[in-house]
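Forwarding these from the shared drive since the link keeps breaking.
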Amino acid sequence: MRGMTFEKLCVWWRNYRSTLLFLCLMLGFRSAWADWVTVPSGSMNPTILEGDRVLIDKHVFGLRIPFTRVHLTAGEDPRRGDIVVFDSPVDGTSLVKRVIGLPGDVVALEGDRLTVNGRTARYAVRDIRSVRGLLAATVAEHPLVLRESGLGQAHDVMILPERSARRSLETLVVPEGRYFMMGDNRDNSADSRYFGFVPRGDIVGRATRVIVSLDPDRHYAPRSERFLRPLS
């Protein structure tokens, strides 16, 4: 009986070893080098839309042993303005937010106006029609799109004036080894204003571009204009 079982295992291994090897390599690659995530919420509107599949560069912050948090290399440190994926301090789920405060930075927020290290961001109103693909439910909230600049790389943020949100924050200092994160949709984002600072070791990778985008409002029809769209 044992001989027959061993023989069957050998046959099974010969037939499927290539498939198993491919799966192991693919999963290891996604775990340690690069991956993609599906964005289900609008917390990063207008930069990232619901239904975007976003490419994540994982090795840039240090090459890890696949399926572990053990780093083989130190890698770069996240930069202010980077869009990163990290494990939520609340429940461990993957979140996509923008790095606002680096270790040692002094961060303040007053009426959705951001100040870092004594420098207050500048804001210019953008034409909402320039943002294609927003969900109908978001448009119904009469969003305001602003160009935020003066604190690094300029980028668009979204304000929802009709929504109750945490628009102000007392001045705080980002501790060593931790980061302050915010969503670009400032009035619809669960971020460091609510769950606090994010440890460096919980930051998984940098989001670099949209691979593909499917529109939930149109039965997940492709948004062709967003294919391979850079996030910078």
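-- next protein --
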Amino acid sequence: MSQPLDGIRVIEIASFVAAPACGALLADLGAEVIKVEVPWGEIYRHSRPSFAGYESDFPAAPHFHMDNRGKQSLALDLALPQAVDALSKVIAGADVVLTNMLPGRQEKYGFDPETLLAKHPNLVIARISGFGPDGPEANAPAFDYSAYWARTGLMDQLHEPDAPPAFQRPGMGDHSASLSLTVGILAALRTRDQGGKGQVIDVSLQHIGFYITSNDATMALVTGESPPRHDRRAARNPLWNHYRCGDDRWLFLVMIESDRYWKTFTDAIGEFDLAKDERYTDGFSRYENARDLIAHLDAVFETKSRDEWTQILNAHRLIWAPVLEVAEAVADPQAEAFGSFPTVEHPEFGDFKTIAPPLRMSGTPLTGTSLAPALGADTAAILSDADVDDETIALIVASAE
């Protein structure tokens, strides 16, 4: 079966998460993706679970394999002028160059948009960086922790008023950014194939943070104020709040339209008098008396385990969720039913589950189970296909050993 991006060649000059995750999505869609990697392998490739505090002895980096599935590996040390020249020849046969190299490094190697588009006017150049290609921090190094999380207000916003700033989990901003970069590449390819030229796609981790938090950021733009932090003890809507159960597990009520659910909710938890209490007759009165109501609900939810509350709340079709640990969440039968966790059959590491691509297509299977390449496995073949001479290929391969 043909795939949407059959015949498209992508050269990925990138490391870590955001750009490689985009490359994996393009490979899922059928593109030929050549990953350019340092000969010793990027840190992400070597980040086994045990290095991050897990007790597992799994011998590979499962997140690297997810973000690099379906690619070829070209190991190059760009400190060698011959490697730079060889990569230029590989790029000459490409449709897309995907990179997280900062502008200064792009210019150093002659891979900046001006140079590349002068040689290859139909090329699509997709770049991702912390802060974008313009402004005083265009060449500032960044991770999503800094540009997406701390610099956009997310880190400050996602904690209780008396708690320290919240710590981001790995790859949150990166994977969000990868989706935007993928959309831009697909749009640019369509424009080019309709008679246009190549163009440059830029995604900034900082801007993605503002886009993800646009409900808050747009408010701040027009008011000049930061939104009040959530305080669960005095939530503006007590039915949009989290509560501790009797077994010390948490649940999260998400009844944003509180008036619609108030009577059903009080019936479900057996607190019939609450529905008649004048302090709680509508959303505004519940907000005015939130501390008292939340204290009362705290006591109610502590009377039963979370499993018991699950049966009760689900029986009344209320909107809520258990607050799951990650190991619990990835065992969720609903996620299994969607196909979230396919199995990779790896000849070296054995079978292991991974995360499927972030969408399904009825006419195009997107399994997410293609293998990530062994380091440098395709170097000689790729360079030979690009008409790099045998002597240079031998030098580059030897430098990677």
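The mean pLDDT is 97. Residues 235 and 290 are 6 Å apart (CA to CA).

- D.
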